Amino acid sequence: MSVYEHEVKALLSEAGVPVPRGVVIHERDFTAAGQLAEPLVLKAFGPGLVHKSDAGAVILGLRAADLPAAAAEMRSRLPDVAGFLVEEQADAGVELIVGVVRDVAFGPVLLAGLGGVWTEALRDTALGLCPVSERDARRMLDSLRGSPLLYGLRGAPPVDMDALVKLLMTVGGPGGLWERLELGEFELNPVIAGPSGVVAVDARYVPA
Ligand code: ADP
Ligand code: MG
């Protein structure tokens, strides 16, 4: 079973995790994307597309008028494209990873850390047993080596910590998503945190 990004995002949105506004396109008609605010992001989805940017299946900074040509180019290059997700591009911010992993001994564990392109290189993550309390969530964020990035480094505005803590609670707190997606693992990478909110711009679910 493969669960596509837009399907995971629908579930996240329903649970109260902010995700970008977007539309799913299956054919060649991109008029539905006209209702979205530019700049836009084009992402192809299909059974074999897991690490989308490695495959060249993500393009940022598009105008609605660019979509048909960009999509046709992706289709010609990628083997099995099932469709496209077109979404609004979030403003730049601090990119975080938030996820739930299943530990054989401890069970479901909330993971939070610096994400996006930095995930593998920095390995700066914190763990907390689900369900985490709000205090646990704040401690996890404060324990990151990169936590000064969240509080505003070198003149950058601090990120909306309350919104970030709320997101962590929605994922790993009491009654959180960790309970609903019973056996699988999932990962929001990145969550982009800015001065006036947070948004999960990528989401992946790995069924058990
Ligand atoms: P991948 O499957 O490669 O992880 P992502 O969906 O995470 O694909 O997209 C790759 C990168 O593009 C992200 O790490 C993020 O920096 C950027 N990105 C993706 N979607 C958006 C968006 N809606 N707004 C802003 N940036 C985005
Ligand atoms: Mg990603």
Features:
7 helices; D-amino Acid Aminotransferase, Chain A, domain 1; binds magnesium ion; four-stranded antiparallel β-sheet; Dna Ligase, domain 1; six-stranded antiparallel β-sheet; alpha+beta; binds adenosine-5'-diphosphate; 26% helix; globular; 208 residues
Please provide a brief summary of the model.
With 208 residues, this protein is of the alpha+beta class. The protein has helices at residues 5-15, 67-77, 119-122, 134-142, 147-150, 161-172, 177-180, and strands spanning 22-25, 40-45, 58-62, 83-88, 94-103, 107-114, 125-129, 185-194, 197-200, 203-206. Helix content is 26%, strand content 30%.
What is the name of the CATH architecture of the largest domain? 2-Layer Sandwich
Order of helices and strands: HEEEHEEEHEHHHHEEE
| Level-1 CATH class name of the largest domain | Alpha Beta
How much of the sequence lies in strands comes to 25-35%
General form: globular
What is the number of helical segments per DSSP (H or I, 4+ residues)?
7
Q: Which hetero compounds are present in the coordinates? A: adenosine-5'-diphosphate, magnesium ion
Q: Give average pLDDT, whole number.
A: 94
Reported by name, the CATH topology of the largest domain is: D-amino Acid Aminotransferase, Chain A, domain 1
CATH homologous superfamily designation of the largest domain: ATP-grasp fold, B domain
Rounded radius of gyration (Å): 17 Å
Number of strands: 10
The end-to-end span amounts to 10 Å
